[in-house]
Write a structure and sequence with these properties.
Helix content is 17%, strand content 39%. The model has no long low-confidence stretch (mean pLDDT 80). The chain folds into two domains: 66 residues, 2,3-Dihydroxybiphenyl 1,2-Dioxygenase, domain 1; 59 residues, 2,3-Dihydroxybiphenyl 1,2-Dioxygenase, domain 1, CATH 3.10.180.10. It has two helices and nine strands; from the N terminus they run βαββββαββββ. It is globular and about 40 Å long. Strands 1, 2, 3, 4, 5, 6, 7, 8 and 9 form a nine-stranded mixed sheet that branches. By secondary structure, it is α+β, with helices and mostly antiparallel strands.
């Protein structure tokens, strides 16, 4: 059964939002770079702020009121879940994206328009597949 594995917070002002969550919840957020893309990592190590559920802040100028996305892990079945989303009346809002040496993700909406994402661990995901 899929379980929550990641929280992504999109914001036009990541430094301001970083300070907010650090001061409010004590999160230790650090800036990272991956393939020319900047994000602010919220660690998920045992005993950390969000144990077993990682997260990040991502810069986005077009949020449309949808600032938080919860990702669910689907253990090797991402393609099956992508098809199921559409057959159940949801929609995909991004293509399947590779995060090199980590896995794949896709963003979607449920039938009411609520954003969520799916994640598949796969260390074989390559930089050549990355489409961001």
């Amino acid at each position: 059964m899929p379980k929550a594995c990641y929280v992504s917070i999109s914001t036009p002002n990541p430094d301001k939002v970083k300070e907010f969550y650090q001061q409010l919840l004590g999160w230790n957020i650090s800036k990272k770079e991956m393939g020319g893309f900047s994000f602010w990592e919220i660690p998920n190590t045992p005993g950390s702020q969000i144990e077993n559920v990682g997260g990040s802040l991502a810069h986005s100028s077009e949020m449309n009121g949808q600032g938080v996305t919860v990702y669910y892990t689907v253990d090797g079945k991402l393609d099956d879940f992508m098809a199921k989303i559409e057959s159940l009346g949801g929609s995909l809002t991004s293509p399947k994206m590779a995060i090199p040496s980590e896995g794949y993700l896709v963003n979607a909406k449920d039938p009411d328009g609520n954003l969520f994402g799916l994640w598949e661990d796969n260390k074989a995901a390559s930089k050549e597949e990355a489409n961001y």
